[in-house]
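Consider the following input, taken from an annotated entry for Glutamate/tyrosine decarboxylase-like PLP-dependent enzyme (Amycolatopsis thermophila).
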Amino acid sequence: MTDDLLPRAAELARDFRADLAGRPVFPHDLDPAAVRTALGDLPDGSTAPATVLEQLRTAVEPALVASAGPRYFGFVTGGALEAAAAADILTTGWDQNGFNPLTSPAAALAEEVAGTWLKDLFGLPPTASFGFVTGGQGGNTVCLAAARHAVLERAGWDVETRGLHGAPPVRVFAGSGRHATIDRALRLLGLGTQSLAEVPTSPDGAIDVPALRAALSTADGPAIVCLQAGEVNTGAFDDFPAAIAAARQHDAWVHVDGAFGLWAAACPALRHLTDGMAGADSWSADGHKWLNVPYDSGYAFCAHPAAHVAATSYTAAYLVGDSPETLRSPGDHVLESSRRARGFTTWAALRQLGRQGVADLVERNCALARRFAAQLSDAGADIVNDVVLNQVLVGFGDDTPRVLEAVQRSGECWMGGTTWQGRRLMRISVSNWQTTEADVDRSVAAIRTAWRAVQTR
Ligand SMILES: *Cc1c(COP(=O)(O)O)cnc(C)c1O
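Applying the prediction step yields:
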């Protein structure tokens, strides 16, 4: 019986995926208590595995979100590509510990190859080190740990040994439009959010370089500058050549948060947005957003492998075995020891798409974002940002919150809200490989219907 269980799980996953475009995008009539009841109590005895699978499916099915589908435009969310979803199932079946070459040479080698491909796609230095992390948060945390090591080492302080008590203060500079994961990374790293000097941004959300220059000049000492490829609301890119030049004047480490925007570098039509970016010291990106691989998948790249490894590796006596010396050790570049073999899904996605396919995916999504903007503008809505990438900010005057709620309730599509420069707006992000022009047209129709209903109420 148990032999049939993995195919059964795959079949259920297949059926769900096949129906993604057909089901309501968000389960609005959800009764959480009913789901809790269906999930039940902790049993004293065992349950047959096949029964467990059916119980799980039945219990949570009403609460599932079609976020992997073509009309989900919330946050910045992709949906797993076919090869990546299948490779993820295989990753589970193989159940490798991706810690190091001794626990799984397969995991180590797949990460080595996929990581090298990613550097190539992003135009990063071939000598850069990389870690396959859990996502953008993991990427920012690992990169800022490497930054903390390097800027304090230059100040004669070994932070890994001595900690931060008595250390020279580290100043961190980031635009007001930075992602909240930067702040959390600073908290986790003991730098604290007070170390952060918030730099104003221009109206499109990019860091104001003269203001950055002025902020850097107020003091000396260890400094880290956090730039952004793809502002979370507008998709704007910082002016990398100018911002990096300003940072270099003060010997600051430059980190680029490129959770989704780094993918512009893999696309000839958009690559200009990332000009100069490769001159930074570290970069983070997500796999589970725009590459459309399953969760959890992100990347941390570092131009200074020694700083990267100094911040994240460890050695324990029981680990020193006959590990093939020449193989890269994945666990030395991330925050976990025992870990999922994350390289398989990224390798599979890149292999399925190829260089051209990645560029096409990114470019197609950006064209669909422009389609949204054009049609909503025609409908009388206010397009607030310059749609340089896949993000569209839309205002419906005072009706915005109610339009947003009505659209979300429609089940036709789902997009989130945001507050941008004091205005409550609809935030549309197009990041899914399956989204078509028809999906955009249908979503615009749903938005127009919702707006009309709000106006006549
Ligand atoms: C999504 C995002 C993050 C966080 O990534 P997670 O994968 O959700 O941890 C960080 N920075 C930016 C710019 C993002 O868009």
